[in-house]
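Record type: ASSEMBLY
Status: queued
Input:
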Amino acid sequence: MQVALVGAGQTKYGTSATGLKGMFAEAARAALASVDKGMQARQVQEAWIGSVSFGGAQLGNLAGLLVEHAGMQGIPARRVENACASGGFAFRDAVQAVKSGSCDVALAAGIERMNDQHEERQRYWLGVSGDTEWERTAGLTFSGVYALMAARHMKDFGTTKEHLAHVAVKNHANGALNPKAQFQKPVSLEDAMNAPSVAAPLGLYDCCSTTDGAAAALVVRGDLAQHFTDTPIWVQGSGASTDLLAIHDRPNLTELRASRAAGQHALREAGCAVRDLGVAEVHDCFTIAELLALEDLGFCAKGQGGPFTASGATKRDGQVAVNTSGGLKAKGHPLGATGIGQVCELFLQLRGQAGPRQRAGAERGLAHNVGGSGATCAVHVLGV
Amino acid sequence: MQVALVGAGQTKYGTSATGLKGMFAEAARAALASVDKGMQARQVQEAWIGSVSFGGAQLGNLAGLLVEHAGMQGIPARRVENACASGGFAFRDAVQAVKSGSCDVALAAGIERMNDQHEERQRYWLGVSGDTEWERTAGLTFSGVYALMAARHMKDFGTTKEHLAHVAVKNHANGALNPKAQFQKPVSLEDAMNAPSVAAPLGLYDCCSTTDGAAAALVVRGDLAQHFTDTPIWVQGSGASTDLLAIHDRPNLTELRASRAAGQHALREAGCAVRDLGVAEVHDCFTIAELLALEDLGFCAKGQGGPFTASGATKRDGQVAVNTSGGLKAKGHPLGATGIGQVCELFLQLRGQAGPRQRAGAERGLAHNVGGSGATCAVHVLGV
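Status: finished
Output:
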């Protein structure tokens, strides 16, 4: 059974004045409105909603409440949590359900309100997506984890702060062209390199932000796609994996094995190689994470992510356009929504609807969504 | 594609001295050990883990950590959250994935550590599975919600405290025969009726407990079942639904529409009626909830759950044996594990391995798992 993506939409990322219900309804409405031949909320039969439930007060039993307020009252719905990869796994589960024949039309969505903490200690919960026994309780934050990875990458492969800065500059340049992005302004290489330190060697522009956002995607049985659009996007491959949660347990700090395994699986299922990809949304929660992703997914050799990026290979007109949306860095990173937001960007790119940030002739793309410091990853390959 | 249940196992429910990782590994090992012809942890290809993440310190990114410690390192895994129906939805998603052809052998599991709160206010989080805006912040707890339902049921249908007590007496009698149950002691009708009040009209024996527990089930492609056992249990039907979260939005307090819809769907898919069921594990978080379940699933007419129970129809030798495990009431209710624990009981009953609490000749059974005050529900029909 083939599965087609026929609609995708999202809120603007940033600081939202709307509650969880309003944000979710806005994303769902945008996804429904994007279906060329029309789709009504009541046609959606089941929903998977990625969320870490980081804010917004309704932290449990959220799924039913959200579909109720999106006009889909009564359909089976559940929350999928896999740290920052919650959205990617929600998409995977929705695709599997359609493939199984259990439903014809499924909603894969994601939502996070990170700026709306209803109690003082709630921000503390972000840390629980890292290892509690060995990392969080010892004070190791995600900035710290990725700083360790960056430092090791620098030592082993000669990666420089300038290499990292090139990621930020590129993604901010893309974000400046995305009306849904949290930060729509370019950043210069000098500014990126001279920004205040967050966790050395990572500075302010090496780190993604705290973001509110919701995103929604509609997947249907392949043989029904024509009822909804003449230009469906096909889910060609889905791969997912996990890795050891505590980073000291892993063989090295410069590779996310879950990314590698998930990427290989998704590409194999799609029957293609990375050279066939015109666009890729990769999980750049920190600039070093984009370099690791480029290497682990096979866009360049291990250790070469920095020079590869500095060469311009990942710009919109490069070998592969990476994070045309602005990425987590500039578009923003509303945890559970991020993986679905990546799908939204691919939906636009592969249909030639991405406006000034369009990658010319993009026919196949990849979405790469990582949880925590790499303990979990989902990768999807989409194509025309 | 048919899906077969070939293994199921769990920890003892109660207060556990083991952490999340140890509890999960114990349940997974028990499930693997129950596979007649043997199954190794490395044969499991993907996992769905139901958990509200109510305790145990590792509240986010839990899924990868748990499969790592169960010898299944690297497989795709995610947490499924739907309040107290998290386990039922994890089972549904695992079944759909096997049906889709994405994997041949899947683990559906659930876990909760409710007695291990790592910060003082964590118990407060249980309340977030009810509606936050209208109920939780106004002080309405789950005991209070179900007390309102019980009071209305009494007013509309003449249900009595004695009717409720019959549920507790039956389930404690069953729990006394279940070595995995939290409470393995019978309770007399007098004790149940004269227990201290929790939220009138509900007394101590009308309410389930705070429980640590983990449970695991192994589902495989039907055509592979013979490699694992000569007596597979078949997943004949799966139904799920949601309802309005805030109870004041619902048309009445004496029906859980999500239960009704999920039950009808599951029975239709299984091609059978409730009269064909020998056993049923229903979601008796409060005694009134078992009466609602009996009515909403169609075992008796609306309003007749009390007299139906008092008649002995739901005892082990009655029309249908309900909650032979002891139910949430006596076996215990470790939130995310509960829906999988129900599957574990059906696995034993349908294979004739339930020992002194065996329902004679049970060939078909139903598991009914409700989230919160009824905003979500998953029902499965299993059979030989």
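Annotation: The mean pLDDT of chain B is 95.
Annotation: Residues 130-208+234-383 of chain B form a domain with the Peroxisomal Thiolase; Chain A, domain 1 fold (CATH 3.40.47.10).
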